[in-house]
Write a structure and sequence with these properties.
The termini are far apart. The longest helix is centred in the last third of the chain and has 13 residues, at about 55-65. A four-stranded antiparallel β-sheet has the order 2-3-1-4, covered by helices on one side. The protein has helices at about 20-30, 55-65; strands spanning about 5-15, 35-40, 45-50, 70. The protein is α+β, with helices and mostly antiparallel strands. It binds copper (II) ion. It comes from Methanosarcina baikalica. This is Copper ion binding protein.
């Protein structure tokens, strides 16, 4: 049986300016395979994600943020 490792990671995101942006980023990130949870903080300009370990997943998350129109740092 395979054991899943859940990792917590903070990604800085540029370009969010209101609650609408916050929701867009949250939806985009949570739609990525392997992501369990995404918490977006507009003031801190960051999103904290819980995802199944693997560098590939993190790259997919960043790609999803870019596709939504924001810039992961
Ligand atoms: Cu906005």
């Amino acid at each position: 049986m395979e054991v899943e490792t859940i990792t917590k990671e903070t990604i800085k995101v540029e370009g969010m300016s209101c609650g609408h942006c916050e929701m867009r980023v949250k939806k985009a990130v949570e739609a990525v395979e392997g992501v369990r949870k995404a918490e977006v903080n507009l003031q801190k300009k960051q999103v904290v994600i819980e995802y199944e370990e693997g560098k590939e997943n993190l790259e997919k998350v960043k790609a999803a943020i870019r596709e939504a129109g924001y810039e992961p740092v």
